[in-house]
Each structure stands twice: as C-alpha cells, then as structure tokens.
Amino acid sequence: MKKIILLAVVVIAVGGGIFAIKNITEKTETVDQSTVAESIDTKNSGAATLKQGDFIAIDGFHKGSGTAQIIKTDQGNIVKFGDDFSVTNGPDLFVYFSKTADENDKNPGDFVSLGKLQKTSGEQTYKLPDNIEEYKSVVIWCRAFKTTFSLAPLR
Fold this sequence. Notes:
Blueprint lengths: L1 H24 L22 E7 L1 E2 L6 E2 L1 E7 L2 E6 L4 E2 L5 E6 L12 E6 L7 E4 L9 E6 L4 E7 L2
Antiparallel strand pairs: 1-4, 2-11, 3-6, 4-5, 5-9, 7-8, 7-10, 10-11
C-alpha cells in the first residue's frame, strides 16, 4: 500500500513539475489592440476602397466566405471584413496581409500579421501598414496547425 501511495505522489509531483515548467517557458502573447480599427469611420467623405476580394474555401474543411475591402481613410489604411464574412472556427486564428494570392499555396508567404482574428463571422476591421502596394491577399491563418483557413485575393 505504501508503494502505491509513493508512486502516486511521484506521478503527481512529476506531472506538476512538467506543467509548471511548460507555463514558465511558454511565451504569453498579447494582441496589440491598437491594430484593431473599430473606431475608424469608413463612411466619412475621405474613405475610398482601394482593393477588394472574396474569401474562398481552401479545401473541404477550411472554408471562408464574404468580402474583404482595403479602404483608405483619413486615419490610415484598413482592411474591413463585411457583414457577410464567415470562416471555419479553429484554434489560434490570425489575420495576415500577404504578398501571395495563390489559393493552392498553403503557406502565407511574405506577410504582415494584423493580429488575432476578432471573431469567425461578421464585420471587423484591422489597421494596415503604410506600404500596401505589394500585398495581394488577406489570409486567415491557424498558427497552431500552420495552415491557411481561408484567403481573399485582392483586386
């Protein structure tokens, strides 16, 4: 009986130690909320759509739909997802602004992270960097599984 209790204590101690080490060494990322552009008025007279595209399904499981618009405003450039936006739910989803627009390429290529996806459906906006000319798509990327969930090629 003492051996069983001792074994249980050792297992709990080792498990607790592994859990503690994992939590200590794991980086905690914080989404910079300044990348969220909810307060920008896209209906003001200075707003103009520069590019737009539709989110597409990548395969039978990773699907997206709806529109993405690149809009120039008085406060800077933003990407705005329309009310019709929807993407398959998944862990650790991020929005990338990519220089690649190939739906067959599962890699986002050269990109700028716009932050964590706010929600899997509905309107949302993200601030963009100043140099947007080279970028060709908006990508919904799962960092946990390193896969594209959807992308919107921009025209």
